[in-house]
Amino acid sequence: MNDHHLILGELEDCITGESLKDTHDERYRQQLARLLVNRKGYLKSEIKPRKSLIVEAGNRRARIKVDFLVYLDGRAGMVIKYGPGSIVTRRRPLVAISRVLETYQIPIAVVTNGVDAEIVEATSGNVISQGLDTIPSRARLAEIVSGNDFTPISAERAAMESRIAYCFEVDGSCPCDEDVCRL
After folding, report:
1. In whole angstroms, what is the distance from residue 20 CA to residue 13 CA?
2. How many CB atoms lie within 10 A of CB 127?
3. What is the DSSP-derived secondary structure letter of residue 153?
4. Rounded to whole angstroms, how far apart are CA atoms 152 and 135?
5. Please, what is the Cα angle at 135 between 68 and 102, to 5 degrees?
6. What is the DSSP letter of 152?
């Protein structure tokens, strides 16, 4: 059994207060949530944890979970996805997710393993900074959101991005991963 599937009991979600399985992965997610609220200045009400997303590749469909979606002024401004191990291979699927979670391009995507992070300008897919400390603060994200046109994503582009997310997040997932549900 991989240690990221070891259940250590239960813990309380610091955003919602609900009880969750205490795993090594969830401990990292909770550290990220506390970072967003305590050090980056986000309100708990601005953070949507465990956002479900249906992704498709041809006739295959699955529901995946996105760890955090951060809203400012009624718009999703940042998406954060946690995964253990190397973050480099998780960048492209997160950019794809940033293009299908909403009808528009979410401007900032953060991929992290809980120890390191890449902050990606999602329209271009370019890494703009590295490290957990460089995750945009609420004030910085407000600047980014206010200067963003929230470009709509075409249906054709969304279908291709959904396929990319499916291939990385579903085809490559561990069979016992509870964050992926093949439909």
Report:
1. 7
2. 16
3. P
4. 24
5. 40
6. B
3-state secondary structure of 35: helix
The token pair at 163 is: 């396929």
Q: Can you state the angle between helices 155-166 and 91-98, rounded to 10 degrees?
A: 150
> HSE (CB half, 13 Å, CA atoms) of 119?
16
| pLDDT value for 50 | 93
Q: What is the DSSP string of 58-113?
A: TTEEEEEEEEEEEEETTEEEEEEEE-SS-SGGGHHHHHHHHTTSSSB--SEEEEE-
Please report the pLDDT score of residue 1 as a whole number. 44
- Rounded to whole angstroms, the Cα distance separating 112 from 63 reads 20
Q: Which residues of the chain have pLDDT under 70?
A: 1-5, 171-183
Domains of the chain with CATH codes: 44-177 (3.90.1570)
Between the alpha carbon of residue 161 and those of residues 12, 88, 92, the distances in Å are 33, 18, 10
Strand partners, 92: none
Question: pLDDT by residue (tens digit) across 16-28?
Answer: 989 888 888 889 9
Q: Can you read off the two tokens belonging to residue 158?
A: 């969304």
pLDDT of residue 132: 96
At 182 the three-state DSSP class reads strand
